[in-house]
């Protein structure tokens, strides 16, 4: 009877703990993994993470995970994940990196490893480094790293932070990498769906602050010009005025148009209604004549007035002398 009672208490306690962890995990996911537009999947950052997920051919890497195998059994989910991690580490410098700089490959790999472990095994530890699966994988990776050439090794990072803190850090890293991805794509004219990209940037507080700081009104880089076009065409804050022949978006035409919108000056206030544009090379004719007298006089006019005054005084002087003599 006592054993049954203890079993029931433990079972209820374990179930409550599981419910609590699941709720915490769902809260973390809701905050850190918002829905993203499928068009963002073309970005190198997302494509590289997807490549690391590839589990094809992991059979040859099971032998590199003896610790995980002994704890979680052969070909278990944990064992499969370890084999995928080993594969990604051994082939990291050989897989397509989608123009990601080599000095960032290990950062990507570390973020990917922790992120996938959190997602797959619902890790909610206050300190992520204390997670059992990550600890056991790193035991095996210590041995794997010894067989990798020194210039292709990746030192794994011990993130002594909570899961939520780690996910925030990864999100910050990913957002900034995607920002650079977008800038490179737009400047190279390799894509046309700019609106999706700028929607992503402007809806992210940190990235929006970054692009406003970078795309000052003297920056005529295509990335910045397209950003200001996007603002003008979508009713966003117009941070800079555009001197445009047309505000037609470059996404509306298949051919790459010439840039016709050099950036000019920062707009302090955008009026509710803008005056109609005047055609080029047409003189402006005022409908109401100027009534304000000119402030500057012609030098010839001034000289004539002075001479006239002197001549008048001279005549007066001659008349006065003549009058005195007669008297």
Automatic annotation (TrEMBL):
<keyword id="KW-0472">Membrane</keyword>
<keyword id="KW-0812">Transmembrane</keyword>
<dbReference type="InterPro" id="IPR008780">
    <property type="entry name" value="Plasmodium_Vir"/>
</dbReference>
<protein>
    <recommendedName>
        <fullName>Variable surface protein</fullName>
    </recommendedName>
</protein>
<feature type="transmembrane region" description="Helical">
    <location>
        <begin position="297"/>
        <end position="317"/>
    </location>
</feature>
<dbReference type="Pfam" id="PF05795">
    <property type="entry name" value="Plasmodium_Vir"/>
</dbReference>
<keyword id="KW-1133">Transmembrane helix</keyword>
